[in-house]
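Reading group handout, session on sequence-to-structure problems. Before we discuss, look at one worked example. The prompt was deliberately terse, the way you'd type it at a terminal:

> structure RING-type domain-containing protein

The input record follows.
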Amino acid sequence: MARIHTFLGTRIAFYRPRKRTYYVFEWSPAHHYWSRSRVTGSPTIVKHKTELHTHSSVIIRLFNGGTMTISSNCKYLLIDHEVVPIVQRDTGAGMPPIKDDFGGVVDSDNYIRNIELWTLEVDVPVNSVKPLPKRIAWIIADDACKNNEKCPIIMEPISPLTAAVSTCFHCFDYDAIQTWLNTNRTCPQCREPCIITKAFD
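And the output record:
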């Protein structure tokens, strides 16, 4: 299964088969997580399908600190003029209670409209990415500690004892980023292929 790099737009939709309703999550660039989003007013919502992709998956981080693996099967909602890819939860954190779900979705007459719903990760050989020198990683991590920055994965302050820095210059808790990279090939902040350097011994 291909790995999703970036979704089109900032929102994704989940389907609730028992209720036959949908709910929407929105990406927050400032916080680097997905949180619940409302569909306001009474927009026209139509379901479409694209044939430009095969089934693809990605790990996302939620507003409550949990992570989950989701997959997309090439279907999407057109909410007024906004394209919202439809995804499903595969593994990981359970979904928090949802009150903002909605129905009234109809199938498109022609159903298939070929739209690029997401871009795919590029398979970059590990040996093509060189680790940061220890001294550079130390400077970046030291600055992050002094500025009370938080690890974007676990949302806890960067510790001088456990900091690690990616080749794209982002600072993380060492154990957290190691766990992330066990199942992902890219940085959780910028989605660039990366490896890490532990900033402190």
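Points for discussion. First: The chain has two domains: 2-120, 126-198. Second: The CA atoms of residues 42 and 70 lie 28 Å apart.
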